[in-house]
């Protein structure tokens, strides 16, 4: 009886630990989800204005630059994304938010995996491999606080790019999988094309630079 009680206690402890790990919520994600709705609305509107300004810039021949903050992006994700959810996210994922740090982006969202609701997070390094080719080096993936098998991450990333109709190739760098995503900015009229040349991640913001050139 004593042994059975000890085994039961150990199993209960293991299950409690597993439950806590699966339901671990990153601090940045909790803060982003509980942000003031009015502030999210303002940030979303600023994101839309920034995107419109970028669109106007790239229509003109010459260099251009655009800056987006994490607050603006998260505001847009909170306010505008739900209206487009069916086109951008699979049904088992919801409420994505992100954190931007120097050279690194961490994204998290709620997910239902085999009937269990948890928080999935993904840490990636982001850079341009070449003009119009975005590189996403996958550093770490977790379900709650538990490492998530990278093969599932790779399948999910490939599916997301397929929904966005963006070509993707895979390679490895020091053992980390790297997704090479070919952007398709296309023509902007009058024989001009867009080149996205660099992406810089700093604390709390992303800076995109590029140029619009006349086709030769």
Amount of helix: 25-40%
Task: Output the helix-strand order.
Answer: HHHEHHEEEEEHEEEE
Summed up, the domain count is 1
Report the end-to-end length measured between terminal Cα atoms: 85 Å
Q: How is this structure best described in words?
A:
This protein is of the alpha+beta class. The protein has one domain. Helix content is 38%, strand content 41%. The protein contains six helices and ten strands; from the N terminus they run H-H-H-E-H-H-E-E-E-E-E-H-E-E-E-E. The strands form two sheets. Strands 2, 3, 4, 5, 6, 7 and 8 form a seven-stranded antiparallel β-sheet that branches. A hairpin with a 2-residue loop joins strand 3 (104-113) and strand 4 (116-130). Helix 3 crosses helix 4 (70-79). The protein is globular, with a radius of gyration of 21 Å. Mean pLDDT is 80; it is low at 2-20.
Spell out the blueprint of helices and strands.
Blueprint: H1 2-22, H2 27-33, H3 37-58, E1 62-69, H4 70-79, H5 81-88, E2 93-101, E3 104-113, E4 116-130, E5 133-143, E6 146-147, H6 150-163, E7 168-173, E8 176-182, E9 192-202, E10 205-214
Antiparallel strand pairs: 1-10, 2-3, 3-4, 4-5, 5-6, 5-8, 7-8, 9-10
Helix pairs in contact: 3-4
What's a concise summary of this model?
The protein has 216 residues and is an alpha+beta fold. It contains 6 helices and 10 strands, in the order αααβααβββββαββββ.
């Amino acid at each position: 009886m004593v042994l059975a009680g000890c085994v039961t206690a150990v199993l209960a402890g293991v299950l409690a630990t597993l439950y806590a790990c699966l339901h671990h919520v990153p601090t940045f994600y909790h803060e982003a989800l509980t942000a003031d709705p009015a502030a999210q609305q303002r940030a979303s509107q600023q994101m839309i204005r920034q995107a419109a300004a970028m669109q106007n810039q790239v229509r003109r021949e010459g260099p251009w630059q655009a800056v987006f903050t994490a607050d603006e992006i998260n505001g847009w994700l909170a306010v505008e994304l739900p209206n487009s959810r069916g086109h951008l996210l699979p049904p088992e994922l919801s409420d994505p938010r992100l954190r931007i740090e120097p050279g690194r982006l961490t994204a998290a969202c709620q997910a239902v995996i085999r009937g269990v609701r948890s928080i999935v997070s993904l840490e990636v390094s982001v850079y341009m491999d070449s003009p119009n080719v975005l590189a996403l080096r996958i550093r770490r993936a977790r379900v709650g606080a538990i490492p998530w098998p990278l093969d599932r991450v790779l399948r999910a990333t490939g599916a997301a790019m397929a929904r966005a109709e963006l070509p993707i190739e895979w390679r490895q760098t020091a053992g980390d999988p790297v997704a090479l995503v070919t952007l398709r900015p296309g023509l902007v009229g009058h024989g001009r094309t867009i080149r996205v040349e660099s992406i810089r991640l700093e604390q709390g913001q992303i800076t995109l630079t590029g140029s619009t050139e006349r086709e030769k």
